[in-house]
Write a structure and sequence with these properties.
mainly alpha
Length: 179
Amino acid sequence: MDSIIIIEKILEDLKRVTPDKLVEPDEETSKNETVVGVMDERLKKLYALSYSYYYKERELVLAGMKILAHGEKDIPELSEKLSNNCRELSKCHHLQELADLIFWGEINQKFKTWGQQKIAVRKGFKVVVIEKDDEQKEIAQQLLLVTNMPPEKLFGEFEAFLKEKGAGEKEAEEPITKH
């Protein structure tokens, strides 16, 4: 029987995750979150693996930018370098997505959180269910993390985008402020 190579790769990489590579979240639980359990060592390693793929993706994006910034004059060589970088980036992205899906599937299975609106991991590797009141805060935090922009710039650009598109005029009339 043929093996599933991509899953084998993840399992192989998982074996290499040592305790010093565990990434503990630094966010404390909030009043609108219910702790449903604490991750075991296996889940901590899977969590760390998913993050290691994510950081590798970021490194590859920066490497691609450096390739372009060096202004390679030999077009075929530039093309080859960028193609290799893009292949590695794509591979890493798929590994990260799959590891992330496996991680959350394992969390849902272990803590019986299937169908919960939003679950997250907090300081101390606590798994929490987030009540609806905190959902908007969580989305905003994820946007800030992904875009790496100061809140006033991110939300200012979003407000300008809404005004430009004529969408959400009522929401766009009121300025977005930090809390």
